[in-house]
Design a protein that fits this description.
Layout (H helix, E strand, L loop, with lengths): L13 E11 L30 E2 L1 H15 L8 E5 L6 E4 L7 H6 L4 E3 L7 E3 L7 E3 L2 E2 L7 H5 L7 E8 L6 E8 L5 E10 L7 H13 L14 E12 H6 L4 E7 L1 H11 L2 H4 L2
Antiparallel strand pairs: 1-11, 1-12, 2-8, 3-4, 5-6, 7-11, 9-10, 12-13
């Protein structure tokens, strides 16, 4: 757990800004739902922007990071989970507590009030915590879809993966199709973490931990069936202190053109010196 206590005072110190590329090592499916179905189209289309280009919603990446960190922290157990939705068949349970040093709640924020736990007595929380981490929608880099790739795609920017679910008794096949962004595509990612006190800076190491776990997990749907393997590269981490915004002071580069492992090591070795230089 973090060094935060109920006496920790919040005062804006600056922002840590992480930018880089998210590479699709396999096809990526972040679903758009089934509100409409075109003739000859996929049963499960990917989400697209107003120009018809696939993108990775910030909510999808942020939610995956939160889920991975909850699991690695031992918080994905009934006594630590509360219901966001109790609709049958559509239950949504996430971690939340009223502990002031709870790193998950500090990074992703929490609201006060009464919430039903998945197991045990209801949570009556008076803690209101602003979210430190913002994750933005990641647009597709169009240049990553090469002319050679386009020749073999089902659509201009996406492929359709055909699958079959097999009945174990009759062996009858139930075909389905999944639209995916092809392997080799790149997206431009941007994460911004507010540092509201000195105790916040170590929380960024948990964000990097979640991103490293993501590389050995999956993003989007169909992960257990081969989709969603991603890799982050060409990362740049920048510190913009409060004087950057107040008086035009220079930003500080904490790493550029590196992968997650190098960025994680460099951030630890810096020992949060950027805070003392403000």
């Amino acid at each position: 757990m973090s060094a935060h206590t109920t006496q920790t005072e919040l005062k804006f110190l600056g922002k840590l800004i992480l930018e880089g590329e998210l590479h699709c090592e396999t096809g990526l499916h972040v679903g758009a739902g089934k509100g409409s179905l075109e003739i000859g189209g996929s049963d499960n289309p990917v989400v697209k922007d107003a120009f018809g280009r696939p993108y990775v919603p910030g909510s999808s990446l942020r939610g995956k990071l939160r889920s991975l960190l909850e699991q690695s922290s031992g918080m994905a157990v009934p006594s630590e989970l509360v219901y966001l939705s109790k609709r049958k068949g559509q239950e949504v349970r996430i971690h939340q507590s009223d502990r002031p040093d709870d790193e998950i709640c500090l990074i992703f924020g929490r609201n006060p009030g009464r919430m039903d736990r998945a197991a045990g007595e209801s949570l009556e929380s008076s803690q209101a915590t602003p979210a430190r981490l913002a994750v933005y929608d990641a647009p597709l880099d169009p240049d990553s879809i090469t002319a050679q790739m386009r020749e073999n795609l089902d659509d201009e920017l996406t492929e359709v993966k055909s699958e079959n679910a097999i009945d174990r008794i009759t062996s009858q096949a139930n075909p389905r199709t999944l639209e995916r962004v092809p392997a080799g595509a790149r997206f431009r990612v941007r994460l911004v973490m507010d540092v509201l006190c000195e105790e916040d800076a170590p929380l960024f190491l948990r964000v990097l931990e979640g991103l490293r776990m993501l590389e050995d997990d999956s993003l989007g749907g169909g992960g257990s069936r081969g989709s969603g393997r991603v890799r982050l590269s060409n990362l740049k981490l920048t510190w913009r202190g409060k004087n950057y915004y107040a008086s035009g002071a220079a930003q500080k580069d904490l790493g550029a053109g590196v992968d997650l492992a190098a960025l994680q090591t460099g951030f630890q070795e810096a020992a949060f010196s950027f805070l003392r230089e403000e």
